[in-house]
Amino acid sequence: MELVHSGKVRDVYADGDDLILVASDRVSVYDVVLPTPIPGKGAILTQLSLWWFDRLGDVVPNHVISEDVPAEWAGRAIRCRRLEMFPVEFIARGYLAGLGLKEYEKQGTVSGVPLPPGLVEASRLPEPVFTPTTKATTGHDEFITFDDVVREIGAETAERLRDLTLEVYRRGADLARERGVIIADTKLEFGRAPDGTIVLADEVLTPDSSRFWPADSWEPGRAQHSLDKQFVRDWSSSVTGWDRTPPGPEIPDDVVAATRARYAEVYERITGSPWRL
Ligand code: ATP
Ligand code: MG
């Protein structure tokens, strides 16, 4: 099979008209792939995405064809439809964290959307906000406004994708909340099928693409216990001398184990099934 793309986490192969999306155990922070893998991470991302795709089928069609992939990738790869991807990261935020928090602290807005005063880190927003970013091929993604998305893909498609992004977020957040997990925010990717249909692609509502917080310890005004990649970001920020450019630092064994445990925990909490690896 021909390797058509090697991203930070996934390798993408072409098999006839289909793509095979293989999730590796690589982890990236601040867009730098770290030299140490997190064993089992690729399988967790793939299985959790499949679980969500299944449950979101009545909101939006998705790119999954099957799990029929070469044996060496079994469990961590899917066969999917090849789409023309929209050049935007479709992000929904229900709580204040990360770049959203930064912008709010500076100017009271997130992605240009005005928010009420008095919010703090991890505050719940009055309602979820659509905060798209660029999908940079090099360098970091940056916030863009809804109008920028309109200019990029047209008003009708932009509105549809904004609505779908918020709906997927709401559905996911409601379901996870029943299972004790807050989904603070999430990033989605959509593409267009040859017949023009809008399709949900890539990965969905995973600890690489979302912020997950245990609901029972949620407390605005401080950093939250995170069941996602934030744990690795926080550790990497504590590494003296690393300026967030390649090469990234080796991850020590205890941080690898703790990261892996968090990814498995969020899989188990959300799906209600034991993680098998
Ligand atoms: P980059 O590709 O810029 O490195 P990334 O590190 O997030 O970004 P990965 O997630 O590792 O990339 O790789 C997955 C790639 O496959 C992404 O570029 C994503 O947009 C693309 N992709 C996902 N699903 C599909 C699909 N159905 N059709 C075409 N491309 C897809
Ligand atoms: Mg990606």
UniProtKB/TrEMBL annotation:
Residue ranges of every copy of the SAICAR synthetase/ADE2 N-terminal domain listed in the record: 4-245
Pathway the protein takes part in: Purine metabolism; IMP biosynthesis via de novo pathway; 5-amino-1-(5-phospho-D-ribosyl)imidazole-4-carboxamide from 5-amino-1-(5-phospho-D-ribosyl)imidazole-4-carboxylate: step 1/2
InterPro entries: SAICAR_synt/ADE2_N, SAICAR_synth, SAICAR_synthetase_CS
Family classification: Belongs to the SAICAR synthetase family.
Enzyme Commission number, as recorded: 6.3.2.6
Record protein name field: Phosphoribosylaminoimidazole-succinocarboxamide synthase
GO cellular component: cytoplasm
HAMAP family: SAICAR_synth
One record GO biological process: 'de novo' IMP biosynthetic process
Catalytic activity, as annotated: 5-amino-1-(5-phospho-D-ribosyl)imidazole-4-carboxylate + L-aspartate + ATP = (2S)-2-[5-amino-1-(5-phospho-beta-D-ribosyl)imidazole-4-carboxamido]succinate + ADP + phosphate + 2 H(+)
Pfam families: SAICAR_synt
CDD domains registered for this protein in UniProt: SAICAR_synt_Sc
UniProtKB keywords: ATP-binding, Ligase, Nucleotide-binding, Purine biosynthesis
Top enzyme category: ligase
